[in-house]
Amino acid sequence: GAVVSQHPSRVICKSGTSVKIECRSLDFQATTMFWYRQFPKQSLMLMATSNEGSKATYEQGVEKDKFLINHASLTLSTLTVTSAHPEDSSFYICSARISGGPNNEQFFGPGTRLTVL
Amino acid sequence: SQELEQSPQSLIVQEGKNLTINCTSSKTLYGLYWYKQKYGEGLIFLMMLQKGGEEKSHEKITAKLDEKKQQSSLHITASQPSHAGIYLCGAVGYNFGNEKLTFGTGTRLTIIP
């Protein structure tokens, strides 16, 4: 099956620093990737849709200058949390959709747990 | 926007018992996904339903989409410890033209030996 990886799996950083999270589709090409955030005991909330070669589309309430998304290739999207603060601590999950695949099925990465001190 | 309500929010079941999780939409569902998530991990795809009245099974898990396409249920038969986790339903927008997935509130399943 299609595999999506994320790196790092865990990251702890000081307040004010920037953190980059990578999302890779390992065995397929993905023109579209999605970034979600999940707070403890809550469901996944879509943050943005990442499109290869173009600007990301952000959901309402998500600051695009704070959460920078780059989708430079068909297998890699990155999310950079700039000037991270404790309230940004969360579980970040990406998903990727197979280009031209049926049913628009999304494959999810294992997630990245960000802790901002 | 599509809103999905799951019930129950949490469920504690003795091993070997059957259970059902429901997912109700405020709008007609044009595509309904069921995922399983273990705490602190990614999502595992279980099943996708698209047609009214559709039913799919995989091992001991059966998912159904009602005729009106506004409610889906996930049924586990003879539950096992490996079934424990968080179950999430997700829906795409109108007729798959909208790729964004909206997730339900989640159901946390605990299996007691």
Give your account of this protein's structure:
Chain A is mostly beta strands and 117 residues long. Helices cover 0% and strands 52% of the residues of chain A. Chain A has strands spanning 4-7, 10-13, 19-25, 32-38, 44-51, 57-58, 67-73, 76-81, 90-97, 106-108, 112-116. In chain A, strands 2, 4, 5, 6, 9, 10 and 11 form a 7-stranded mixed beta sheet that branches. A 4-stranded antiparallel beta sheet of chain A has the order 1-3-8-7, with no helix packed on it. In chain A, a hairpin with a 2-residue loop joins β7 (67-73) and β8 (76-81). Chain B is mostly beta strands and 113 residues long. In chain B, 0% of the residues lie in helices and 54% in strands. Chain B is globular and about 40 Å long. At the A-B interface, β5, β9 and β10 of A face β5 and β10 of B.
Distance between termini of chain B? 40 Å
- What is the largest interface, and how many residues per chain? A-B, 25 and 23 residues
The share of residues in extended strands of chain A comes to over 45%
| Elements of chain A, N to C (H/E) | EEEEEEEEEEE
Biggest sheet statistics of chain A? 7 strands, mixed
SS-based class of chain B: mainly beta
List the helices and strands and how they pair.
The complex is a heterodimer of chains A (117) and B (113).
Chain A: E1 4-7, E2 10-13, E3 19-25, E4 32-38, E5 44-51, E6 57-58, E7 67-73, E8 76-81, E9 90-97, E10 106-108, E11 112-116
Parallel strand pairs in A: 2-11
Antiparallel strand pairs in A: 1-3, 3-8, 4-5, 4-9, 5-6, 7-8, 9-10, 9-11
Chain B: E1 4-7, E2 10-14, E3 19-25, E4 32-37, E5 43-49, E6 55-58, E7 61-65, E8 71-76, E9 85-92, E10 101-103, E11 107-112
Parallel strand pairs in B: 2-11
Antiparallel strand pairs in B: 1-3, 3-8, 4-5, 4-9, 6-7, 7-8, 9-10, 9-11
